[in-house]
Amino acid sequence: MIAFTSRWVEPPPHVTDLAEGGLAAGFRAAGVPAGIKPSGDPDLALLVSSEPDTVSAARFTRSGVLAAPVLLCQSRCRLDGLRAVVVNSGNANAATGNRGLEDAARMQGAGAMAAGVHEERVAVASTGVIGVPLPMDGVPRAILTARAELAPDGDAAFWRAIATTDAFEKRLALDVALPSGTVRVSAQAKGAGMIQPGFATMLCFVQTDAALEAETADLLLGVCVKRSFDRISVDGQLSTNDTALLMASGASGVIVAPESEDELRLGEALDYALRRLALQMVRDGEGAARTGRVHVHGGHPDTVERVARAVANSPLVKAALHGADPNWGRVAQAVGAAVPGAAPLPYDIWLDGVQVCAGGVALPHEPPRLGEEVDYVVGLPGEGAETEVFFSDLSHEYVRINAEYTT
Amino acid sequence: MIAFTSRWVEPPPHVTDLAEGGLAAGFRAAGVPAGIKPSGDPDLALLVSSEPDTVSAARFTRSGVLAAPVLLCQSRCRLDGLRAVVVNSGNANAATGNRGLEDAARMQGAGAMAAGVHEERVAVASTGVIGVPLPMDGVPRAILTARAELAPDGDAAFWRAIATTDAFEKRLALDVALPSGTVRVSAQAKGAGMIQPGFATMLCFVQTDAALEAETADLLLGVCVKRSFDRISVDGQLSTNDTALLMASGASGVIVAPESEDELRLGEALDYALRRLALQMVRDGEGAARTGRVHVHGGHPDTVERVARAVANSPLVKAALHGADPNWGRVAQAVGAAVPGAAPLPYDIWLDGVQVCAGGVALPHEPPRLGEEVDYVVGLPGEGAETEVFFSDLSHEYVRINAEYTT
Predict the structure, then answer these.
(1) To pair with A211 at 20 to 30 A between CA atoms, which of A202, B55, B259, B357?
(2) CATH code for residues A291-403
(3) pTM exceeds 0.80
(4) CB-based contact (8 Å) between B339 and chain A?
């Protein structure tokens, strides 16, 4: 797996990165071709827990337009006790109506047979083009093939089969030293920030062999998603298919009790894992040169959030970031647009630690040389509220790829 | 001036386009270099009405970050009785603090001397880079030079001096046949949609020689701005400097009484003029190939507006428009993102008149061949609310220009 470093996301001391990968104990995975991608690349992924007491938690897109697999998971799964996951890439199974729901149910049924568990314990997920029926012909056979290939080190194959146009692998395996013993966290994610938002669905599957209560899994996943995938800018777009699942097999025998030091430390590890994967999504993509983080502080949580999103989603700011252009006027413009009627607004701006604007007035300064990670800080009046959003640049490749996607 | 045609904006029958231009009676204008643009191009524009009873109306940006000239106009002008306008391009005089306000006041004062009117009757406007003090050295002399060059056909020179990177002229002169007689409407605008939003300030100056009450001018400008400049997508960004002014000299002797047929017909002509200029802003820019219009109908005004903006501002939709890619899944995704939690949402989508999605489900269809103007229609549940937004595509040139703007 690729090495990961960032000024913004650093591993806690009790977390060890396992470069070779490998799933948390109790899990096996595989990825095979099912004939959905025209390229013939792997596009069907299966993950199974062998532990009957596996607990889970799930989060889905908030979009008002939901793909069939999301609707199916929400209506026909025991989301706190998932034992298996079936994923296809190459087709989102979205805007596909009743046929789409039937196809998702068939995937779920085949997954249940392959995993030897009840259907309601099998989640399904899809990513790819919207509005085209899922080519199901090869799917049942592919699920059987995947079953035969399930392996504890199948996370690499699993990842390849959930990826679409991701430019690099987003996968990790961590050993996490808890007071009660060492557990493993493994995770696989796909999604490519600004670059391929036609395929921008975010999928993330996290496994641990810690023994959790389902409520703990839900709490931890909820907090960590809020601090990771909810904090990245993908054009301000939500996908119809975004899915994040956490499964805990308990196979390590290490019990993580609610409100224990173990829970705190496991939470820190999951937080690191998801923020690392989220930042990799922002970084991903042909042509992407730089990554930005905007941190906004002030007195009103809503305003702080609105301003951070406005800066992170501004094509002007993104294009300037791409060219390493320290043109902070674009940040000022985005700030102003986010708070109509607030003038005169005494805002401050820092660019990579250099204050360029104080109380809404330009400060004389030496423009900083911008590297691969650029920090934007915006100060608004008041105190007590703060937030951050990670965002990618806007590159030539973004336009080329997205102008030529289906034609 | 360039010829104008659009499937969306057509002249009413009582309006005649004057290809040669020329200001409405009572107005003279000029544009000269003042040393603000490094290129030495004209960057100082002056417009004066010779009629003491001239009335006016104004609209400004809603940004929470206002440039000095906007603050000055709002605090120190009789906006219903403006006689003159001084505009500079090449510098926005924004985020410039007290010095910026003093510079704007000096421009206003020199304009008042040149026009021979009281300062409060002189509006000022600026467009260009943010956060750099306005180079004032050559401004007073340039205003005197412009005064000497004031001419009834000075609208072309005026336009050149307010433009920044506009790729083509946005200017018009119309003869408008009212029941009580023929009046002229002339207008000059700058602003280049998605392409140069670093310079994306929208400035628009409209003159008529009809005799209006100030309240009528305000009503007409308000309605027409709502249907034109408020209906275009410039990255979802507001500029710090946007300004629209309507001045009515009364020099034609044609009185337009409130709630008269004359007022209705003049309103139609102004509506045409401002929608034409707004659409030209959307079209403008190196690399821009296509223009889109999204029309959304449904039961809730707020939702309809939010969905229209989401589609128009989506970089995915814009990039697909650039490539003439009929990938309507991106429209569906933007719709869903705009109405979180609304699933299942029975939305319909038409692409250039071809229905591609009904009740949230893809329809078999022959993908339309997309031309220079592409129509997107989104149907949401319910009736009674509708809106439209015009938007530009996202081109390679957009990225190139905005990545290289100040560096």
Answers:
(1) A202
(2) 3.10.20.340
(3) yes
(4) yes
